[in-house]
Amino acid sequence: MEHMSGCSDDLVSAEAGSLDACERPCIHHDRVDKVRGVLLADAAADGLAEIFSLLGDRTRVRILHALSLGELCVCDISAALGVSASAISHQLRLLRTAKLVRARKEGKNVFYVLDDGHVHSLIAQGLEHVLE
Fold first, then answer.
1. Number of domains in the chain
2. Does the global pTM surpass 0.90?
3. Is 124 within the bounds of a domain?
């Protein structure tokens, strides 16, 4: 176990103390330096936080899950989720702005798909984690 001199190697069971904070301050400089070398820049962290914020809404998650199954028009998504077409359109606009979905117009209908394989993987892995 890597540790800073003066840090204790004593292991404490989860029941014996809080797991929310260190009981004794002890900085492991080698670990800190490793993390600082690859820590996300503010812009990347903001972008990732925005994606997770968008995923924090049940309707948007259900829309993304439905689109992970294939291309759907706004009316189809509305019918499948039991939510008004205008509410679906509003949510899709947010998802499109974040580049999570993309749209194509065919006649009077607008069809949506997930923007790319990364979004599909994000939904699939998130769902897999929840269902474990």
1. 1
2. no
3. yes
